[in-house]
Amino acid sequence: MGNEAQNFLPELAAQDGPQPGPSWANKRWPLDDGGDLIQAMDPTAMKLAVKEAAAKAGKPADDGAIERAADDSIRAMMLVRTYRVRGHLAADLDPLGLTKHELPEDLTPEYHGFSGEALDRPVYLGGTLGFQWGTVRQLVETLRKNYCGHVGLEYMHIADVDERRFLQERIEGKDKVITFTPEGKKAILGAVIRGEEYEKFLGKKYVGTKRFGLDGGESMIPALEAVIKYGGQLGVREIIYGMAHRGRLNVLANVMAKPYRVIFHEFSGGTANPEDVGGSGDVKYHLGTSTDREFDGVKVHMSLVPNPSHLETVDPVVLGKTRAQQAIRDDLTQHEQVLPVLIHGDAAFAGQGIVWECLGFSGVRGYNTGGCLHFVINNQIGFTTSPQFARSSPYPSDVAKGVQAPILHVNGDDPEAVTFACKLAIEYRQTFRRDIVIDMWCYRRFGHNEGDEPSFTQPLMYDRIRKHQRVSEIYADRLIAEGVIDGQTAPHMRYEFEGLLNGEFDAGKSYKPNEADWFGGRWSGLHKPADPETARRNVETAIDRKLFDSLGRTLTTVPDDLQIHKTLGRVIEAKRLMFETGEGFDWSTAEALAFGSLVTEGFGVRLSGQDSGRGTFSQRHAIWVDQQTERKFIPLCQLPHGKFEVYDSPLSEYGVLGFEYGFASADPKTLVLWEAQFGDFANGAQIIIDQYIAASEAKWLRANGLVLLLPHGFEGQGPEHSSARLERFLQLCANDNIQVCNITSPANYFHVLRRQMLRSFRKPLVIMTPKSLLRHPMAKSSADEFVAMSHFKRILSDRKDIADDKVRRLVLCSGKVAYDLMETREKEQLEDVSIVRLEQLYPFPGEPLAARLGRMKNLKEVVWCQEEPKNNGAWFFVDGQIEDALTEAGHKGMRPSYAGRDASASPATGLASRHKEQQDALVAEALGL
By CB neighbour count within 10 A (0-12 exposed, 13-18 middle, 19+ buried), where does 814 fall? Predict the structure, then answer.
């Protein structure tokens, strides 16, 4: 065959051209595998296809030609795949040009064996990138345009074929360029100019004031508008945003449409709420807002969640709020209508562990929100720390690969590219209901805040920034060159917008807020409590006997087709006996009665924690598991009207507590409870407790009814399984902000849970829940304590009937130690010692305690007894409160003494013998033995 055989394949290519493809082409090659091309690179299959096609064409080729043609195609496909995996490394992303990436060797055609005339030899590509036939030179040109321009796509870590194909179809091809209409380009320019001029205006009017400006990242403004516009077209009706400081005021004004005059009023020192509302308020760059915006006839409600300076803490709050709103809108299946958008800084996204905790929720039952859109404002610096000292990975977004989220790296100096990335991101999210990340490379024109001098630490970067054109100038020059606008368009836009800002600035001087927005929507009918914290009226929380009995049947009826564990069978039988006799109700049964009664009354109940289904101490058994099939049965889900949910959460405290706080902030009609495995572990979520739970009402006028269940009690289990750090919660108490209880009675636990939903206001409730008391023979309640006229009791009097005038020594305590005191007192036959339990520590029950003390006319000594070390627990909180109650009761000059463990750096001993010795000693001291 000679030369004829050598030239056969190129001749055929020239004859057929790239449109129809060769007549001999294998129709199954490349295989439809989502573009990975791995299966298509089988040399044997390729050679066979070429050989059959050549024979069919009547021009048989020798084995050498066939092998060379197959080899060319396979190496070309490897080149394509390499660009898909690594092309982003050569993308033009850094507006400042400081980050230089040499073209990786494996992205060159030479690396794959193509050089010289081989670059222009037609290669069969089977439709890849729109080529049936193409030269390697054409192929590389297209690949560089698709993957190495102002958008660099990372997506080949995604396992799902359809997701990869979806992204390829929108990125790859000879004709794939970012295009907007002339009107669209003008709109993008206008949004960038508004973002820039707004920051300039603030800098001019409020010189030296912190604003954490967006300067350098203004392309985010039209991009976020694209999320609203295209999201609305794809079914989004509500967007919940969370972000830290950078650009927040710009987003509030130019994306959320918060009136400029309101922001100017706040900049001038004015309050965001009416003067009579109260609260401490917060700095302007922590505040949120809510509003509606309409694009193309579609209205989208938006809210920006307030957050503190603790970076990324708002992430789980946004996700929890999103989940609640999806439940309210009946959108938990489709996840179409409510979209979470989280805006991050580059250093925070890479550096804060809470980011990973939240990414981990993305596919977990009970926490999934159908995908979150993450937008990273990549300033290429964190405060004063350069990226190479802030992380070990190439990009700040690398953590997102752990959940197979696609990542769009984009040059922030190209507003069209950033807007395109957001348009693609919302389309992907609405299609696959999965997280996606936009990593916008930009810069920070000024320091971390406007008072910092960044050249102290990054002189070269800031020398480049000072000389660098603003985004709007670069983009306006481009549009002039394209003939979309003339030279006067951008200056006119600036002039008009500055005039608007001047008018709003003047209006801000006389602006006065006329209402607070915290009790609207689903919160309608609730209000701030009017009564003082020491005179809080109880609501009737008892249930009627008919409902009580009905719930008993629900909790003790096992379906015929469910094979339960034999131990669980004994637990259920014990419950059945409680309902038959009306005696011996334990903690878990009381809890189930509270949950079940609330559900029956139309409330929701959501309980989450690391072992919440079974219960850390194998006490709850809210979920029954078939021992043959592992089918789950939840008795409380069989009840009508409301909804009961219980989730074994991811192994996270910080993220899960933030999520549940966010859920409770959106839905006051659901009892939301988070249970720590041991109360000690709540300190892993301390930021949520300090910055949100304790302070959000004062700072942001955001009420919340979240319940924290924190197992607490000193039983010799060591320093990490004893203390929920009661003292820390009590130190946070002020201004009627939270409720703190240490409850000892199952019935009282039942009533406090029901009280949480039946009152006309919401306050976070922190409960030191028991461990040994879950099954303690003295910690039982009778049926009568759940029905009739019973209610929550802030203090519980002694179980022993001691006449008030005989009490000479009163021991006040809280929690499980009360039963240790009672047992020892009975053993020692002390007849003049009374034990009173404070079931609620805050708001402190001063009024009922004073009334109780007032009846003890012969009282000589008052002792506060606690298990915790003296520097822990409630002692320093209750000391003065008890003295005030004694004075009010007529025992002026009397002060409580302390009985408990000595001050200690560690909360508890890990030695059982030492624990018993300490416990016996503090009980004896309290009782005067």
Answer: buried
